[in-house]
Write a structure and sequence with these properties.
It comes from Amycolatopsis mediterranei (strain S699) (Nocardia mediterranei). The protein starts with a strand and ends with a helix. The longest helix is centred in the middle third of the chain and has 38 residues. It folds into four domains: about 120 residues, 3-Layer(aba) Sandwich (Udp-n-acetylmuramoylalanyl-d-glutamate--2,6- Diaminopimelate Ligase, Chain: A, domain 1); about 130 residues, GAF domain (Beta-Lactamase), CATH 3.30.450; about 140 residues, 2-Layer Sandwich (Alpha-Beta Plaits), CATH 3.30.70.270; about 80 residues, Orthogonal Bundle (Arc Repressor Mutant, subunit A), CATH 1.10.10.2840. About 50% of the residues lie in helices and about 15% in strands. With about 525 residues, it is α+β, with helices and mostly antiparallel strands. Helix 4 runs antiparallel to helix 9 and helix 13 crosses helix 18. The chain has a five-stranded mixed sheet, with helices on both faces. Strands 9-8-12-11-10 form a five-stranded antiparallel sheet. A five-stranded mixed sheet has the order 14-15-13-16-17.
Amino acid sequence: MSGVSLADLVGALRHDVVRVSIDGDAAQAVRGVELLDPQAGEGYGPGQLLLGVGLDVGARDDTESALRAAAESGGVLAVKSSRELPVAFLDRARAAGVTVVSIDERVPWSRIQRLASAVLATRSGGDAEGATSGGDLFSLANSVAGAVGGAVAIMDTGQAIVAYSNLPDQPIDETRRRGILGRRVPEEALPDHLSGEVWRSDSVVRRQREGDLPRLAVVIRAGEEVLGSLWVAFPGPIPECAATLHQGARLAALHMLALRRHLDADQESRNLAFRAALDHPGDEGPDLRLPAVLLGADVPGPGEIHGANLLRVLDLFGLDGRALGHQPALALSNNRIYALLPAAPAGSIPVPALVAHLRDRVEHTLRSEITVVSSRQVQAVAELRGERHDVDTALDHVRDSGEAPSHYTTEQLRAPIVHKRLVNTIRGDALLRIGIGERILGYDRKHSSEFVATLRGYLRHFGDVVAASAELHIHQNTLRQRLRRAQELFDLDLTDPAQRLLLELELTAAAGN
């Protein structure tokens, strides 16, 4: 492997690499990616990008051994930092003759390793030559078609047709015609296109469905990552063209990686604007596509894997949302996922159908269900704060009430949302309270009694002693005795509707405190 210059590698990762500190030649060749383990005692191959996972750039001992390993192998040291790298560390790197790449600490090491490996795999063999060169995927499809005498279609992993050849007098069958019109592999052809024989193979595979032209297929890969597939339909005998198709797939990988970086950049731009709008709801600056619908999602999982689950679901929302015609803006805040979906973009599926798809995908991926709440339509950035509050309140209600995970709308849960607002208002304004909630709560704390729970259960069931006692797991007579005692102690009149309303609101507010 001849390698890729550091400058080219950094350029390919420019949306992830924040800053590069170089001492020496930026044309230094990078030939591979390895995890740095200075304690392992093993050498590294020349020209490796060494990922300093867990390396503290402020710890002299750790960085000394890392710089020594990089210097001995002629490698480039990659580190993470949220700010400028320490001057002392850079001085030691320069003294050791080691190039240091500084990466945004929010970017997972696994993503850096995957992207860098993909770039190296697709660019290390030199520039492409011959009939399969082309400026974009459509030009590439035409070049391959002209070279092999067939009709080319290029699909991504979601079976969307991202490019196809359009030379004169090309062969066409019903599958190709419908695929080009719908820009997606027709449903009846999916089993053939998803065949394991195709996707597990490194070779060109021959396929033919009944009623269709014969085809050759080859998977488009960048390193170990699968990006899509290239298919060629032939009108007659299939020529020997495996080398040309492999070359075409390799070039397609370059174009698809570039397209992915462009999509990632667009996604990040939307995400930044969305986060700014959530953090500063009164600011009209963020350029968000409105009107839109706000989604909030609670993701289950034990503490040790909850963070990983959140990131997996966040990625899924972005990838599948785009694949189904939406351009979501995404944010992760307070262990919740938020997505802003522009209303009814052309060619997209409706929001309820998208949410159903996302919940199904998460269930199959995490073996667990998520709760999603969607807002009313947001017309202006200033409305985001109120809609987010409603979404959060609805998610809290579903969690606290033990409702089953599902897709809810804020309109469906308007009653508990308004109730929560009333309780919060009463909790924050002493002029709206008569003080009964604090008195009963204080008595419970002092005497270890349970009047708050008893009265709340009784009021929640509209005075139904049977239902309330069952919920509280006490005998009906015990409940009646507690109610009589509470009326004596706190001068309650449970026959007065106004007092019952105030009592319920104040008890809920006091219990929340």
